[in-house]
Amino acid sequence: MSLLKAEDIAVHFGGVKAVDGVSFEVDEGEVFAIIGPNGAGKSTIFNLISRIYTMTRGKITFDGTDITRLPSHKVAPLGIARTFQNIELFDHSTVLQNLLMGRHTHRSTNFVEDILFLPKVRREEREHRKRVEEVIEFLELEAYRGKMIAGLPYGVRKVVEIGRALAMGPKLILLDEPASGLSVEESQEVAFWIEDMRRDMGLTVLMVEHDMKLVSAVADRVLAVNNGRPLALGTPAEVQSDPHVQAAYLGTPEEDAA
Ligand SMILES: Nc1ncnc2c1ncn2[C@@H]1O[C@H](COP(=O)(O)OP(=O)(O)OP(=O)(O)O)[C@@H](O)[C@H]1O
């Protein structure tokens, strides 16, 4: 069953057709990757799903709900969490504080209830802590729990960014280039975590990634895009051997054949 469905989605910025008629479905429990050269429109597709950008045309359905015109702040509570290409954490807060902030989408208490620290507030606080501790254990972040983000190595910050998204308890996680800037060993770890997210947490994963080794290792299906247009859809091996995809990456005249 498809959890996310994008139908003929498009966004144009003046004359730039950043995304121009892309359709795909992500099945529940699937790891689905979007690949393409720089400027192909991959991050823009994420921004359309997150509702950061408003679509020029098309429709996006998540878990049976039409989210095409949903305000962006209502996307996360539905069960969609994301990471950003340029890590978006609070540098002067600890790992634990950043992960707890990931729980904010689940707050049902108001300011007065919080001040009075009512039983309902305490109960929610306990639940937030429990979920965050599960994430810390899952991503093996115990050693960094009390450390400031600013002082952490890049690879650890990338993992915390994934943790912040996981702390939300989503059904679908959007990973924007989870392996960029990581060493070969760190990328392999990310591959294991993606597998575990699916197997142990029952998550559906949609990722944008340049690292074809990671994509081949974890993705069930791949959508290749170029110039905002779809090029090929299939297994990693099928997409990698597609002549249009090869042409787009090599920049040969074949590119126009798409
Ligand atoms: N807010 C915006 N205003 C104008 N143009 C934009 C905007 N956002 C994206 N674009 C343009 O849309 C195109 C697609 O950009 P996008 O960032 O989605 O590419 P990408 O495939 O994610 O690239 P990369 O791999 O380099 O991250 C680019 O030409 C980009 O300049």
Automatic annotation (TrEMBL):
Q: Which positions make up the signal peptide?
A: none
MF annotations from Gene Ontology = ATP binding; ATP hydrolysis activity
Task: Specify whether Iron is a keyword of the entry.
Answer: no
* Source organism, top-level taxon: Bacteria
Q: Which keywords, in A-to-Z order, does the entry hold? A: ATP-binding, Nucleotide-binding, Transport
**One cellular component (GO) term of this entry:** plasma membrane
Residues annotated as domain ABC transporter? 4-252
Q: Which InterPro entries match?
A: AAA+_ATPase (IPR003593), ABC_AA/LPS_Transport (IPR051120), ABC_transporter-like_ATP-bd (IPR003439), BCA_ABC_TP_C (IPR032823), P-loop_NTPase (IPR027417)
Alphabetical list of SMART domains matching this protein: AAA
Q: Write down what this protein is called.
A: ABC transporter ATP-binding protein
What taxonomic classification does the UniProt entry list for its organism?
Bacteria, Pseudomonadati, Pseudomonadota, Alphaproteobacteria, Rhodobacterales
